[in-house]
């Protein structure tokens, strides 16, 4: 019995440690990391022999040849092994000990491989990071074993054509970090060594910034001059660090050894003739080459190698050639800085060349490059160009910069965000990768081109006098005054304030209302956040990562911010505001935009569930919200494109709200109304807006919690079950459904309310559906929903939620269409944003965005969202990962979208008694069949567009102005 109990205990221990390892908190991981930094062995335990037969021996007991021998390296502390199980975190990885498939970690979007790269970066900028002391632990890692493993790893994974084509950027980047041929990441080392010195010696910062932002060989002389000038102040330790930096810089800027490259090329056994051009370049006399010649020739060869890499059948050949592309790229980065065009024509040529180099080095996909290539092909054929043509070229070139930076982020952001929760230095990894790419110089070149175009057109930004502000462009017109908050890291942990102006790398998908926003790249034009900003006249602009970094020093200062309808942007400190700008905020203007939710037509006596087929658009605001009413209308107009549905009307919600609220001696509804009555009383007694808002938020939070626990009437739950059977053809618990909140304050004439309340995805179990109904009702009283409503509604207490229940459609991809051009295009065009899986584009994913006209299909931005969700038949959601090697929408989809827009305009527009307006449409595709989920009016803030001040700062531009290509730039 004792033995059985012991075996049982061991089984439980093994099972719980491997299957249910408790996930550690960020603060716990941070403590572990700090402990490793101080430990002479870091995360390592002790040196062991790891034998081929799977056995492990003590360091003094080598594996015998009779069992195949083995290798010697460190084992890991139990805490490090626990982190692998609980949090999928791998510190100080020893490659020789890992199975190749485990390290590739494909099922987790290659997370383990990427973590290795992030770890290498952290070690370079933080003196070994978790191995700060453990890096001197002799015998822990054997370099020859690591390199042998790395070589075998690449020769294995590079056999797969699909993997290589779909992950070209990731593969080339990993080659810089994973040992396999004695190489090292010299560029990263140069930047990290200069960064460490600048942190110790503040007045070295300017040179460090130069090395990071505009690296050139002359930087060596800058460092040498600094050492000479400050010799008396530099300590022995600092002198040693400077000597190390100079050695690294000299190695980085050493001339490319073409003889060595020729020898490497000779190792390639495949004789398919593809390398002819490259061999000619390698053997060419380069003594008379200009930087322009070298950049163009290397770009052409890198382009050729990427396009033809899978023609080489041997993975060894592929590995050699990919290593060669990294060597060539290193020279390319140096020579692009040396190429300094003087005319408009040559600047355009350099821009075109670097765009090609972006594709050639993996920063944009082949199909994306094919889209933009024709735009640049005819530019240099004539002696002149027009301002319109030049602006188009600048816009598209700037897009490539954005696509390139967003591809780097899409590859690494998820893992960087995870690491940054316990090691803030991790945020620098993505910036380091971007700076070690052609994107850095392409961005500078495009900025010069844009500055020239702005000078001709007299469209200029005025943003704190920062450099390269030509990359900034307005998205939504409007103006604001408030405290500037710059969020360089993960935005999800930031508690936003309604009165502040925020600059984000990426806005959180559930952003609460703010005074103004700027984001790095425009992201998704039709996400809920963007539509709400447009709706409320909140100024919104796109900027570069460099701009964000430049503006960090102004964080927490009061600023004035304005975006004109032409897209020029003003951002200035409070004391620089003009008298006209100050007058804009003399008194609050919000009141004249406030609207009242109509309640006179509400039918609150309807207490039975409604079949969606039995409602039409005119029932919106009477029986249910517009989602349900419009979808019922759509079911009749587009019967084959819309699913069945049932509706829980306002009346059922109100019946439950009339129940007595626990411990209050009043009903839920009376508590709600007394809350707003008390808020009005506080205002009358001159309480501050902040006091009133805090009171409302506290009270509504209490109401929200109470609704989550409300008891549902038995008659209602039976009605729900009956309708599942009659409408969906199966009993509740067998049909996965969406629960969509649908209030009477959505889609009002001047307020969209898009995405403010809760939608629950793919709920299957009966109990989860029952609880979900309470969650959706309660979501009307969350802080975020309340704050957005407060911007516009005079009577926010009269918000009634209905619920639309529809069966799930496991779409391949989904998104949003606005039946007009946004920021670009005409009233007749279509702006479409799509992401893979369900719920696409609405939550701010970096979606595939297109401007679709009657004849053309114009890519505004490709998708850069690596993860997506699908809706399995057993309920809930399942996460998947994708690459970006193929577009989401195909030509057939685009034609279906055009036809849908035509149908919407004719069927819905014909029924409307008002002037024609645009629509906001949510839909998806399953096996190329279009499914329609929602149509609502597209609401814009007309006052922001017509503001006298905004009109006054928008320049008048003659787009037909001709410009000679020979003009100096």
TrEMBL record:
Q: Kinase: is it a keyword of this entry?
A: yes
Residue ranges annotated for the Pyruvate phosphate dikinase AMP/ATP-binding domain, each copy included: 624-947
Query: In the UniProt record, does the keyword Isomerase occur?
Result: no
Which UniProt keywords are present, listed alphabetically?
ATP-binding, Kinase, Magnesium, Metal-binding, Nucleotide-binding, Pyruvate, Signal, Transferase
Q: Which region is the signal sequence?
A: 1-21
- What is the catalytic activity of this protein? pyruvate + ATP + H2O = phosphoenolpyruvate + AMP + phosphate + 2 H(+)
Instruction: Give the E.C. number(s).
Output: 2.7.9.2
Q: Give this protein's Gene Ontology molecular function annotations.
A: ATP binding; metal ion binding; pyruvate, water dikinase activity
Q: State the top-level EC class.
A: transferase
Q: Do you know which InterPro entries this protein is assigned to? A: ATP_grasp_subdomain_1, PEP_synth, PPDK_AMP/ATP-bd
Q: What pathway or pathways are given for this protein in its record?
A: Carbohydrate biosynthesis; gluconeogenesis
PANTHER family for this protein: PHOSPHOENOLPYRUVATE SYNTHASE
Q: What does this protein do?
A: Catalyzes the phosphorylation of pyruvate to phosphoenolpyruvate.
Q: Which family does it belong to?
A: Belongs to the PEP-utilizing enzyme family.
* Name the UniProt record assigns to this protein: Phosphoenolpyruvate synthase
Organism, as annotated: Polaribacter haliotis
């Amino acid at each position: 019995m004792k033995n059985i109990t012991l075996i049982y205990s061991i089984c439980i221990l093994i099972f719980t440690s491997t299957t249910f390892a408790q996930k550690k908190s960020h603060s716990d991981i941070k403590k572990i990391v700090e402990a490793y930094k101080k430990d002479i062995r870091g995360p390592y335990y002790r040196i062991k022999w790891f034998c081929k037969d799977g056995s492990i021996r003590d360091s003094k007991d080598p594996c015998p040849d009779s069992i195949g021998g083995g290798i010697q390296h460190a084992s890991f502390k139990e805490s490090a092994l626990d982190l692998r199980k609980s949090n999928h975190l791998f510190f100080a990885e020893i490659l020789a000990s890992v199975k190749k498939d485990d390290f590739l970690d494909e099922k987790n979007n290659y997370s383990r491989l990427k973590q290795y790269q992030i770890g290498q970066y952290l070690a370079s900028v933080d003196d070994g990071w978790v191995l700060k002391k453990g890096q001197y632990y002799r015998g822990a890692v054997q370099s020859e074993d690591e390199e042998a493993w790395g070589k075998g790893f690449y020769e294995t994974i590079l056999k797969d054509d699909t993997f290589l084509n779909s992950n070209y950027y990731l593969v080339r980047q990993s080659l810089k970090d994973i040992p396999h041929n004695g190489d090292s990441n010299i560029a990263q080392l140069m930047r990290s060594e200069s960064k460490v010195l600048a942190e110790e010696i503040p007045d070295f910062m300017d040179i460090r910034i130069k090395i990071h932002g505009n690296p050139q060989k002359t930087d060596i002389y800058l460092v040498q001059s600094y050492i000479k000038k400050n010799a008396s102040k530099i300590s022995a330790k600092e002198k040693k660090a400077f000597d190390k930096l100079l050695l690294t810089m000299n190695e980085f800027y050493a001339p490319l050894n073409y003889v060595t490259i020729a020898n490497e090329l000779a190792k390639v056994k495949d004789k398919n003739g593809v390398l002819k051009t490259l061999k000619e370049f390698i053997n060419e006399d380069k003594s008379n080459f200009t930087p322009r010649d070298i950049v163009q020739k290397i770009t052409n060869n890198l382009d050729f190698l990427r396009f033809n890499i899978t023609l080489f059948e041997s993975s060894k050949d592929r590995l050699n050639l990919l290593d060669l592309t990294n060597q060539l790229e290193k020279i390319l980065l140096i020579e692009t800085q040396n190429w300094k065009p003087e005319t408009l024509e040559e600047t355009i040529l350099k821009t075109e060349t670097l765009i090609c180099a972006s594709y050639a080095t993996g920063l944009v996909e082949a199909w994306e490059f094919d889209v933009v290539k024709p735009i640049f092909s005819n530019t240099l054929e004539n002696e002149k160009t027009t301002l319109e043509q030049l602006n188009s070229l600048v816009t598209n070139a700037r897009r490539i910069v954005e696509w390139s930076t967003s591809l780097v982020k899409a590859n690494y952001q998820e893992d960087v965000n995870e690491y940054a929760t316990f090691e803030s230095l991790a945020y620098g990894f993505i910036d380091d990768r971007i700076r070690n790419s052609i994107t850095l110089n392409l961005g500078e070149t495009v900025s010069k081109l844009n500055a020239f175009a702005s000078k001709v057109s007299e469209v200029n930004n005025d943003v704190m006098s920062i450099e390269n502000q030509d990359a900034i462009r307005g998205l939504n017109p409007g103006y604001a005054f408030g405290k500037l908050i710059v969020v360089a890291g993960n935005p999800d942990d930031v508690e936003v304030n309604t009165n502040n102006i925020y600059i984000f790398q990426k806005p959180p998908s559930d952003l609460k209302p703010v005074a103004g926003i700027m984001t790095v790249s425009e992201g998704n034009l039709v996400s809920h956040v963007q539509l709400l900003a447009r709706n409320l006249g909140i100024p919104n602009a796109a900027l570069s990562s460099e701009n964000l970094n430049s503006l960090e020093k102004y964080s927490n200062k009061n600023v004035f911010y304005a975006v004109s309808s032409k897209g020029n942007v003003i951002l200035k400190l409070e004391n620089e505001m003009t008298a006209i700008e100050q007058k804009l905020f003399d008194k609050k203007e919000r009141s004249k935009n406030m609207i009242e939710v109509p309640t006179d037509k509400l039918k609150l006596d309807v207490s039975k569930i409604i079949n969606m087929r039995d409602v039409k658009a005119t029932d919106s605001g009477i029986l249910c919200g517009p989602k349900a009413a419009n979808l019922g209308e759509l079911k009749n107009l587009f019967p084959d494109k819309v699913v069945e549905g049932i509706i829980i009307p306002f009346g059922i919600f109100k019946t439950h709200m009339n129940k007595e609220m626990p411990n209050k001696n009043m009903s839920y509804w009376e508590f709600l109304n007394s809350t707003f009555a008390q808020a009005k009383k506080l205002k009358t007694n001159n309480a501050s807006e902040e006091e009133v808002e805090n009171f409302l938020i506290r009270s509504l939070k209490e109401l929200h919690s109470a609704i989550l626990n409300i008891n549902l009437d038995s008659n209602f739950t039976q009605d729900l079950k009956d309708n599942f059977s009659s409408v969906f053809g199966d009993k509740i618990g067998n049909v996965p459904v969406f629960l969509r909140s649908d209030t009477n304050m959505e889609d009002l004439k001047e307020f969209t309310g898009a995405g403010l309340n809760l939608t629950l995805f793919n709920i299957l179990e009966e109990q989860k559906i029952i609880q979900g109904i309470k969650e959706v009702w309660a979501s009307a009283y969350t802080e975020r929903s309340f704050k957005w409503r407060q911007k516009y509604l005079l009577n926010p207490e009269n918000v009634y939620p209905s619920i639309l229940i529809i069966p799930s459609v496991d779409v391949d991809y989904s998104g949003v269409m606005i039946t007009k051009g946004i920021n670009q295009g005409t009233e007749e065009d279509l702006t479409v944003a799509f992401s893979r899986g369900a719920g696409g584009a609405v939550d701010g994913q970096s979606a595939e965005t297109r401007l679709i006209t009657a004849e053309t299909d114009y890519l505004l931005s490709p998708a850069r969202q690596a993860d997506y969700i699908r809706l399995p038949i057993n309920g809930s959601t399942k996460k998947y990962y994708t690459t970006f090697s193929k577009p989401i929408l195909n030509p057939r989809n685009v034609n279906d979208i055009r036809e849908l827009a035509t149908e919407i305009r004719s069927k819905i527009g014909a029924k409307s008694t008002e002037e024609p307006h645009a629509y906001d449409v949510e839909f998806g595709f399953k096996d190329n069949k279009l499914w329609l989920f929602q149509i609502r009016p597209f609401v814009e803030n007309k006052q922001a567009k017509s503001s006298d001040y905004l009109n006054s700062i928008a320049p008048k531009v003659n787009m037909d102005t001709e410009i000679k290509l020979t003009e100096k730039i």
